[in-house]
Amino acid sequence: MKEQRTRHRVTLGTGVLAVLLAGAMGTFTACASTPTSESTGGYIDDSAITAKVKADLAGDKNVSALDVHVRTYKGVVDLNGFANTPDEITEAGRVASRVAGVVSVHNNLILKQAAAPATATEKRIE
Predict the structure, then answer these.
(1) Which of 13, 64, 94, 126 has the fewest CB atoms within 10 Å distance of its CB?
(2) pLDDT tens digits for the chain (126 residues)?
(3) Domain ranges within the chain, ordered by starting residue
(4) How much is the pTM?
(5) Can you name the CATH fold of 34-125?
């Protein structure tokens, strides 16, 4: 006796195929960046750059890292806050620019003396 083999063909309707394609497209576009927002990967990269810049500033004895705020967007590092000397401002920018992945540095640090007059406590210390 011969065995009969039957083949079963599975077909997907056009509606099911359209739903699958739409889901795949939504997944890929949800992770894409726009001019005003970052992709998920870009956000993670920027977070890593920010963490590395903060760590390097904290390890530099010539920079008061507690007074420097670091933000990164698409590889551009913004340094904001206050510094005690012009050399500290320069050094903070130099430290940030050496971190891998940094495209450019916007050094917005301000000298403490230029920002406000000395307080009574600061005058007593001098």
Answers:
(1) 126
(2) 566 666 666 555 665 555 666 665 555 444 455 555 555 565 679 999 999 999 999 999 999 889 999 999 999 999 999 999 999 999 999 999 999 999 999 999 999 886 666 777 767 766
(3) 34-125
(4) 0.60
(5) GMP Synthetase; Chain A, domain 3 (3.30.300)
Instruction: Count other C-beta atoms under 10 Å from residue 69's C-beta.
Output: 15
